[in-house]
Amino acid sequence: MYWVAGFASSRSLVIDLGRNQSPSFGLCGSDECHSFYGYIVAVPLQDLGVIMSGLVSDSWWRKSLYITGGALLAAAAYLLHELLSIRKEQELDSKDAIILHQFSRPKNGVPSLSPFCLKMETYLRMVDLPYQNYFDGSLSAQGKMPWIEYNYEQVCGTEFIFDFLEEKLGASLNKSLSAQEQAVARVITTMVEEHLYWTIAYCQWVDNVHETQSMLDLPGPLSDLLKWIMCNLTSGIVKREMYCHGIGCFTKEEVYTLMEKDMRTLATLLGDKKYIMGSKLSSVDATVFSHLAQAMWTLPGTRPEQLIKGELINLAMYCERIRRKFWPEWFVDLEDFCYDSDNDTTSGTPNCLLDLGLFSRTDTLEESELSSPSHADKHSQDTQHSGHSLSDSDIEVDVEMLNSDVEQEVEG
């Protein structure tokens, strides 16, 4: 019977155990012999099965295979730890300040690839509360993202954060809604977050994961490897959670069919209104906008983009209206606003959008007064994990494009 022996010690040692030879010991990187204290552990190979037998066999390539595999797994674990670890160089003081923890900005100009992070930040801008972004990548105690700190209190879950801000600061967008309207808004929120969300996530992280990977912005020499690891992990998590939800049991075509039904439902509910519930903003607008924005600006060439920029053009106008009002530093290519398909010539959709921000049957003077240019200048300060504050936002601002867009609207 063959036995494998090992030595356990508190010091780093190199042990040479040969057949019918006395063992020799030395420190790593040294040829000198030293005294040692420890334990010799011997295990019969037949009890460890085929793996241990392969390790002590004379096939050197098997040993190399096991060592290489172990090294790769260790490297992957280390990189993942570096990606998800919390490295705060400066403690943030949340005294009378809202600190918003969320995922880092992607490099395609969209504020976030997470609908819930975009929802939370858009809501803070809608209620005109100053806040400070912190892109440290740390999840809340419940494992959620985004989450906020205010006066040393931590709150996660967008709906609970809304209630918290209303209780502490009196900030709410639903005060003008009747009880019936609030019930309708609640139903729409549930449909979007518990059903439409999964179909958009499937398109982002499963069906178009390579496109999503190219949008991630991770610094460092190993950024490509980190992005590959992150996207593949997220893709597996999304597929598993979709299966647990129930929607993951359907085929790809069936998932997209459900997505299309949800988007058509939203288009019907919106109609020609300015916002979902009418002429005034409500919290449901932050929810709907943040999810439709993913289809609008993060999924080029996909079925949801074709649908929202083609047949359901009122949803595209709705997203653009909110983007211009609350995200003036977030620029998009207006030439790509409407989807132009060479294979679809019968849809009857316009080739250009006549008026992106001003047209609405229920537009009011009150809303026009709220859209002053100074509205977005006092929203936030973004803080990277280094702790340095950035003015307003780290999304690039093209002043010339903004001026040209305003001139075109005035001339129109």
Number of helices: 13
Question: What share of residues is helical?
Answer: 40-55%
CATH architecture of the largest domain: Up-down Bundle
Strand order of the largest sheet: 8-7-5-6-9-10
Instruction: Name the beta content range.
Output: 5-15%
* Tally of DSSP β-strands: 10
* Sheet of most strands: 6 strands, mixed
Element-level helix/strand string? EEEEHHEHEEEHHHHHHHHHEEH
Give the overall shape. globular
What is the name of the CATH class of the largest domain? Mainly Alpha
Number of domains: 2
Alpha carbon gap, first and last residue: 91 Å
Low-confidence parts lasting 5 or more residues at pLDDT below 50?
A: 1-52, 86-90, 341-378, 383-403
Content-based structural category? alpha+beta
CATH topology of the largest domain: Glutathione S-transferase Yfyf (Class Pi), Chain A, domain 2
Give the radius of gyration.
28 Å
Indicate the mean pLDDT. 74
Region (Disordered): 367-412
Domain Thioredoxin-like fold: 115-208
InterPro entries: FAX/IsoI-like, FAXC_N, Glutathione-S-Trfase_C_sf, Glutathione_S-Trfase, Metaxin_GST, Mito_Protein_Transport_Metaxin, Thioredoxin-like_fold, Thioredoxin-like_sf
Biased composition (Polar residues): 383-392
Outline of this structure?
This protein is of the alpha+beta class and about 400 residues long. The chain is built from 13 helices and ten strands. About 25% of the residues are buried.
Account of the protein in words:
The protein is α+β, with helices and mostly antiparallel strands and 412 residues long. It has two domains: 3-57, no CATH class; 122-411, Glutathione S-transferase Yfyf (Class Pi), Chain A, domain 2, CATH 1.20.1050. Helix content is 46%, strand content 11%. The protein is built from 13 helices and ten strands. The chain has helices at residues 49-55, 60-84, 115-126, 158-169, 179-207, 209-215, 223-245, 252-270, 283-297, 303-308, 313-326, 365-370, 399-411; strands at 3-9, 13-16, 24-27, 38-44, 98-101, 131-134, 147-150, 153-156, 380-383, 389-391. The strands form three sheets. A six-stranded mixed beta sheet has the order 8-7-5-6-9-10, covered by helices on one side. Residues 367-412 are annotated as: Disordered. This is Failed axon connections-like protein.
